[in-house]
Design goal:
alpha+beta; 28% helix
């Protein structure tokens, strides 16, 4: 927005707001203090928030980089109090709404799932269908494997429309036991991982007890995952605070956004990360964030790894994250640091200049644009919502698209109706949306001809890397790789494929081919820290493998990598309860002057051994 437009807009908006305030503002709308006549100032705000802007006014107030424009996709009354969103195989937008927030009690509610469609291709949703009702703060949604997955604490639900009328007529509880102790930290951000699992998050003050298969998972802040076919539940990693948003980089690594504490986290399997509060399990060696800076006030919500040719190169391969207190979209870029990363701050992508703006989710759409879901409320914090639940806004909600110049609209498509060859071609799409959805479609299909072509892509090093990696993830998601090809991947020149061959073996567990398993165990000295990190995780899952010597060898050969020793420690220290003598004998086989990570872990190991002997 240039200076002349800003000045004109500011004068017009100021006059409009004065008139609106005179006409419609009431004491309740000002949210006055319980005692006295002073207007109520919500937490993390410097003055009363004032009345809501219309969608047109809100867009006019926003600042985005030169060449970009903000477009309205949908707004109230079509969407109200939106919490989560996703796209399906036809490019339709699925949104959860919550009128029940901040209700603590479980049970049926007034909340619902809506499907938004743009039937005429003008970029605006013109058809809205209520898919499901009777929900209670549905805080996460994903579409795949023949239905819709919904986080609706205490449950993860699977909904299906079996008669084709656009409404759910089957509802199944997949996992249960999530808490409702803090309803801004409910299970959230259901996201398909590169390995085919459904991932989700839970917050630090929302204790959950999931019981499944004779196991009890007692946890708070965690990244969990669910196998879409077996429904097996697992904790992938623990820690952080109120994480809300999962992103995957091109290597298949997970990144989270979190509130109050640092905002950006690289999450490795088996890791235990810094907690906002609450006790750590005994002997935990916590892992820290990948940033030493902040973006405005620390209330972050939603994150996505953006890669689309609809934007210029300088706006691609970035993490875009919602900042609720800052009322903007923050940007971070990633730099490798051994087996982990460091973040770097970049200028904000969008500044709303409107305290009501609350970006809760960001996604890349089929047109390659960034979509932003806006809860739009005067209250940012749950403390205000709990103290004044009747004054939580129940009348607004927006979905925006950030479009570069005149980038084209997405044509009509239906990936579920495309041939195997068409889907395979999309694995190398310049738009990450099509790469992800095509991979998911191929993972759920079983025709031999298509899978043979996917396998050929993986086995051919000349396949373009992006498409080849996605093809490998299709096979990982299906739970099987031809043993001969799996073995060759463990010696692939590209460390990314070696690392994923190891990770796949860990996921397959007892179904891993014996030759593949034996080769994997020789990779403790692989030159890639990514490969070594995955060996530390996989060796705990393979039948017939003693992890103790593997873990010690990894420590001895991982140099001073900053992440490997902490992940190794989480798997190693329980073994020291009974096997300290063997551990010490293995340590003596190495020159500690040449093994900084092994040397670094010895004080912790000593403490653990002495505690066991007590």
């Amino acid at each position: 927005m240039n200076d002349r437009r800003k000045a004109c807009f500011s004068w017009t908006l100021g006059c409009s707001l004065i008139v609106v305030a005179m006409l419609v503002t009431t004491p309740a709308m000002l949210v006055r203090q319980a005692h006295g006549d002073e207007p109520f100032i919500p937490r993390r705000q410097s003055k009363p928030p004032g009345p809501a802007l219309t969608p047109a006014q809100a867009i006019a107030a926003m600042d985005v980089p030169e060449g970009f424009q903000v477009e309205l996709v949908a707004a109230e009354p079509d969407i109200v109090n939106p919490v989560a969103m996703t796209f399906d195989e036809r490019g339709r937008i699925w949104i959860t709404e919550s009128f029940e927030y901040p209700r603590l009690e479980a049970g049926p509610g007034r909340d619902r799932i809506k499907v938004l469609e743009d039937t005429d291709g003008d970029g605006k949703a013109d058809k809205v269908t209520v898919f499901a009702e009777g929900l209670n703060i549905p805080s996460g949604i994903a579409v795949g494997h023949g239905g819709v997955w919904v986080a609706n604490a205490p449950d993860i639900l699977f909904l299906r429309d079996t008669d084709g009328d656009g409404k759910a007529d089957q509802r199944k509880v997949i996992v249960t036991g999530f808490g409702r102790h803090d309803t801004h930290e409910l299970p959230n951000s259901l996201t398909w991982g590169p390995d085919g699992y459904l991932y989700g998050l839970n917050g630090v003050f929302n204790r959950s007890l999931v019981k499944q298969g004779g196991k009890t998972f007692d946890f708070t802040c965690a990244l969990f995952r669910i196998h879409p076919r077996t429904h097996r539940f697992e904790l992938f990693a623990e820690g952080t605070s109120n994480p809300w948003g999962i992103a995957w980089d091109p290597e298949g690594n997970a990144f989270l956004s979190a509130c109050v504490i640092d905002h950006l986290w690289h999450i490795a399997e088996d890791g235990y990360y810094h907690r906002q509060g609450g006790p750590y399990p005994p002997f935990t060696w916590k892992i820290e964030s990948i940033v030493d800076y902040k973006h405005q006030a620390a209330a972050y919500c939603g994150i996505t790894y953006f890669d689309s040719d609809a934007y210029p190169a300088e706006y691609r391969n970035r993490l875009y994250m919602g900042n609720i207190h800052g009322n903007c979209i923050n940007v971070d870029v990633l730099h490798r640091r051994g087996s982990t990363y460091r973040g770097e701050k970049r200028p904000d992508f969008l500044t709303a200049n409107d305290v009501w703006f609350m970006p809760v989710a960001q996604k890349t759409g089929p047109d390659g644009c960034l979509y932003i879901l806006d809860w739009y409320d005067r209250f940012h914090c749950y403390q205000d919502a709990r103290a004044k639940p009747a004054e939580v806004d129940r009348g607004h909600g927006r979905l925006y698209r950030i479009r570069y110049q005149d980038s084209p609209r997405a044509p009509a498509f239906d990936l579920s109706a495309e041939t195997g060859d068409q889907l395979i071609a999309r694995l190398g799409s310049p738009n990450v949306f099509f790469r992800e959805r095509a991979q998911l479609e191929l993972t759920t299909r079983g025709d031999r001809e298509t899978l043979t072509k996917v396998l050929d892509m993986v086995s051919n090093p000349a396949t373009p890397r992006t498409a080849r990696m996605r093809a490998l993830w299709v096979l990982v998601g299906r739970g099987r790789i031809d043993p001969a090809i799996h073995f060759r991947l463990l010696t692939d020149p590209d460390p990314g494929f070696r690392a994923w061959a190891v990770r796949a073996a860990g996921n397959f567990g007892r179904r891993t081919d014996e030759a593949v398993r034996d080769k994997l165990l020789t990779l403790t000295r692989d030159p890639s820290p990514d490969v070594q990190l995955q060996v530390a995780v996989a060796c705990m899952k393979l039948e017939g493998v003693d992890p103790l010597p593997i873990l010690v060898d990894l420590l001895a050969n991982s140099g001073d990598d900053p992440l490997i020793p902490q992940v190794v420690w989480q798997n190693l220290h329980p073994l020291l309860q009974e096997r300290s003598t063997e551990f010490l004998a293995l340590v003596k086989q190495h020159d500690l002057s040449q093994a900084p990570n092994l040397k670094k872990i010895l004080p912790r190991a000593t403490e653990r051994i002495l505690a066991a002997r007590k």
